[in-house]
Amino acid sequence: MARNSPIARAKAAELDARRDVIDAALAMSRQGLSPGRSGNVSRRWNEGMLITPSGMAYAALVPDDIVFVNPDGEAKGRCKPSSEWLFHLGVYAARADMHAVVHTHSLHAVVLACAGRSIPAFHYMVAAAGGADIPCVPYATFGTKALARHVALGLAHRNACLMAHHGQIAIGTTLAGALELAAEVETLAEQYYKVLTLGRPALLGAAEMAEVLERFKSYGQKAQG
Known about the structure:
By secondary structure, the chain is of the alpha+beta class. Helix content is 38%, strand content 14%. The chain has an eight-stranded mixed sheet with strand order 4-3-2-1-5-8-7-6, with helices on both faces. Helix 3 (107-114) packs across helix 5 (175-196). It is globular and about 65 Å long.
């Protein structure tokens, strides 16, 4: 097979995508966002997605362990996909603008999720998740269609949400972006948890959060040509 043939280029691109998933999973673990083998990572690929396998240590993963799942939920590969593949697939179906999903069991996000608490506008950085709050979606058993429905609804107008009695999910146009948002959600969850120990927090109003969201559109280098 010629090195620059379309087939060779496609295989190389898929290999890079599989490595991208592994790198994100390893980074998630190194950052302490998901202990042990918890959490999962995926990225959109062709008409389906590439996702971490079920129950395998991230440090041991090789590209062939990453599982391709098509839009109908059919898995292709030598490993079983993450038990949460349903909500990953549901996110991609609901959000055509997003191409990566990071699900973590980060400590403070889990604490708030187990209390059934959303993260309100106690700090302007809540807008990093795309709205005036970070919602907590209802509980459903892991790996079920019910949970996938809750997650899809929770992320319809947000880029992150908490999952009651479970953890958090962050999405992005890239895995790097989704991972960065997951880390930001955990930071906000820790800050909000600590603010709650002082009493009922003051919240920013809807008008201010709308202004922050508008400013975020041109934050950093986005305004440059």
